[in-house]
Each structure stands twice: as C-alpha cells, then as structure tokens.
Design brief:
Blueprint lengths: L2 E4 L10 H11 L5 H15 L5 H9 L7 H16 L5 H12 L3 E9 H11 L3 E5 L1 E4 L2 E6 L7 H14 L7 E4 L5 H4 L4 E5 L3 H10 L3 E2 L26
Parallel strand pairs: 1-2, 1-6, 2-3, 6-7, 7-8
Antiparallel strand pairs: 4-5
Length: 239
C-alpha cells in the first residue's frame, strides 16, 4: 500500500516537541530560564519562515554539550512520558491506527532533532522516521547538522533518498501537516491533508481545496488512556 506520512509537532502532538524539551532542560537544571525565553523567540522566527536552522540547532544543543549521546538517550523516556504523552491528539492516534489497518506504511518526517523524534515515534508505535540528523564527535553532539536537514525543501530531498533506499514510491501517498514550512512536501503527494493548520497554510488549503482536519483534546496523564502498543513489543501494529 501507499505511504502515510505525518509531520510531528502540532500535527500528531499539541505542542512543539523542541519547545517542550527546552522546558525539560530548564526543569532538569541543564539550562536557565533565559534559554527558554530565547527558544520561544526562535520559534516565532520559525513560524514566520525566518529561522536560520543551523543557528537554531547550535543554540538548542549548547546546554547538552557536557552530556554524551548515551546520557541524553537516558533522559528521553522520562521526557516523553511527562511532556509529550499528555499532548498527543487522540484523533492522531486513531488516524495512525486506521492507516495501519488499511495497510499503509507510516512515516514521520519532522524538522526536529532525530533523537527527540525517534523517542516520540517509538511511543506512537511508528518505526520509520526522517528527522534532523546531528553530527557526533566522541559520543557527543557537536552542534552541527549532518547532511540535508528535514526542513522545508529538505524534507522532499531526504524523502526522495529514503524512497530509493526503501524501494518505495510516492504513488497514492498521504501527508498530514500543520505548517506552511511543509508546503514543498504537501505539493508532492497525491493526498495532502492539513491538520491544525497555521493561518498561511489554511489559506492555501482553502484555495486548493485540500482536505483539512482540526484535532482537539489530548490524553490525560494516565498511562491506561494511552492505547498504542509499544513499538518494541508489537507483532501487529494497531490502535
């Protein structure tokens, strides 16, 4: 079957996962309050399509410079449970499940650091991920981006390479996204769907008559309410 591609932030989850990780770093004592203030300023630049991604990645990783990649990995389960699970859209989980049931291969493509995206994707039961790869030196993130970042047109470039590696095609593909920054990829798929769209994307979707969904509500901080089978224990993935 075809691909079912999803953006992550503000599409599957009612938050920006990097912003949540920024708050997490402050709560863990890895960064001060000024870091979170500056992070919000940078997110405003992202929303207005003015963000310089390489500058942002250096800024974002600076508080983690003393930690090894393994140390950071150890922090992620707690971060996901506390900061992300309560913000997952129930309708997103339902849609992921429906796509799997129909035989679609689910892929998350995100302009967020790969270590964050993979941790959240695992919780969502999604194995295939394309995200911003980070350069590593001596088991520490160097602050530099590795290869082509999955940002704006870079999402299309990385996806095309992945398709070739996986012997997949874009025939009949879906892509769900909230952001005007994802317009290049939305224009590549047979079935673009805008989810919780920002104003610029909403206007374009209306002109082009693209389907739109507006998901609301999140799961309570109750593990029993979260009904995805963890990826590592799945035999048949479903919701």
């Amino acid at each position: 079957m075809a691909l079912a591609i999803f953006d992550l932030d503000e599409t599957l989850v009612a938050c920006d996962s990097c912003s949540e990780f920024s708050k997490f770093m402050v709560a863990q004592g890895l960064a001060g309050p000024a870091f979170d203030v500056r992070h919000r300023q940078m997110m405003a630049l992202y929303g207005s399509q003015q963000l310089v991604l390489s500058d942002y990645i250096r800024f974002f990783l600076a508080p983690l410079s003393a930690l090894s990649c393994s140390d950071i990995q150890d922090l992620l389960p707690g971060f996901v449970e506390q900061y992300i699970v309560p913000k997952i859209y129930p309708q997103a989980l339902q849609t992921l499940g429906e796509m799997r049931a129909q035989g679609h291969r689910v892929l998350i493509v995100s302009a967020t650091a790969e270590f964050i995206v993979r941790a959240i994707a695992t919780k969502l039961g999604v194995e295939d991920v394309l995200a911003i790869e980070l350069a590593v030196e001596k088991n520490h993130y160097s602050g530099e981006i590795k290869g082509v970042p999955t940002f704006r047109e870079g999402k299309v470039i990385r996806l095309q390479r992945w398709l070739s590696e996986q012997n997949e095609t874009m025939d009949g593909a879906y892509f769900y996204s909230d952001s005007i920054n994802d317009l290049p990829l939305l224009e590549q798929v047979d079935y673009p769907v805008v989810a919780n769209a920002d104003l610029q994307l909403q206007r374009i979707a209306e002109k082009r008559q693209w389907p739109a969904v507006n998901w609301a509500g999140t799961y309570p901080e109750n593990e029993q309410a979260f009904c995805v089978t963890p990826l590592e224990s799945q035999e048949t993935t479903h919701v």
